[in-house]
Amino acid sequence: MIKTDIDLILPVYNPDKDWELTVVSKYNELQILWKHADIHLYVVNDGSARGFEKVVTDYIRQNIPDVYILGYPVNRGKGFALRTAASVCRSGHILYTDHDFPYTLESMSRVLDMLQRGIDVVVSTRDKTYYDSLPLSRRMVSRFVRGCNRYLLRMKYADTQAGLKGFSRKGRSVFLSTRINTYLFDWEFVYKASHRPDLMVRDVPVQLREEVRFSAFGIGIYWRELERLR
Fold it and tell me: Model pTM?
């Protein structure tokens, strides 16, 4: 296969203990899986109060010597963290996911494959198994957002909140134009990309890793994000 460059962005905020072990382990697995790719890893410290001690960052740098570790002192939100890294990415293919790699590597490979086929924005879509794994509060919020996307906004891609997406250089320009810093930044990105006739946008099915568990949050997060858009 043709050699390709990939920028992989991991936003991180107050991670659990030993998170760096997962990052290094999954990065090494991806290197084996994507033999044709040069993977450039960007880790963004989104104003964490813990988890970025010197012993942690030293471990990452020792095992991934060319890693980029970015950061700033005050928490700004996942969208802000991703834009911080995306603004300095230089590869033709950019992927982002969470630092615990919640989706299977096969799912990540599907996203990369679509990018290599010339798609500008790849949107991950989740199946019933994913939603069954969510706490009730998150399930209700997810259904509410999907309903708004599908019936109020008439969006083709109703599942906007999956934490695994990919984009080309053209898609990057749209991503960098987003304004939302936290929960609904994904929605804003997909909404804007879907209204750009010059972009090729496609969705791919993805699956969670079996051991992944999610925390709960309320629908108030959604309303606060909408208020920020006004």
Answer: 0.86
Indicate the burial class of 196 (C-beta count within 10 angstroms; 0-12, 13-18, 19 or more): middle
* Angle at alpha carbon of residue 222, lines to 218 and 224, rounded to 5°: 105
* CB-based contacts of 108, cutoff 8 Å, min separation 6: 30, 95, 97, 164
Token representation of residue 2: 């043709």
User: Which distant-in-sequence residues (6+ apart) come within 8 Å of 151 by Cβ?
Assistant: none
Running DSSP on this structure, what letter comes out for residue 103? B
Q: Quick one: tokens of 147? A: 């309903």
Q: Please, how many CA atoms are within 13 Å of residue 198, restricted to the half-sphere of its CB? A: 6
Question: For 158-197, what is each residue's pLDDT tens digit?
Answer: 677 788 999 999 999 999 999 999 888 998 999 999 999 9
What DSSP assignment string belongs to 68-97?
EEEEESS---HHHHHHHHHTT--SSEEEE-
**Are 42 and 9 spatial neighbours (Cβ–Cβ below 8 Å)?**
yes
Furthest C-alpha separation in the chain: 49
Rounded to whole angstroms, the Cα distance separating 36 from 19 reads 27
DSSP state of 53: -
Spatial CB neighbours of 15, under 8 Å, sequence gap ≥ 6: 48, 50, 51, 99, 100
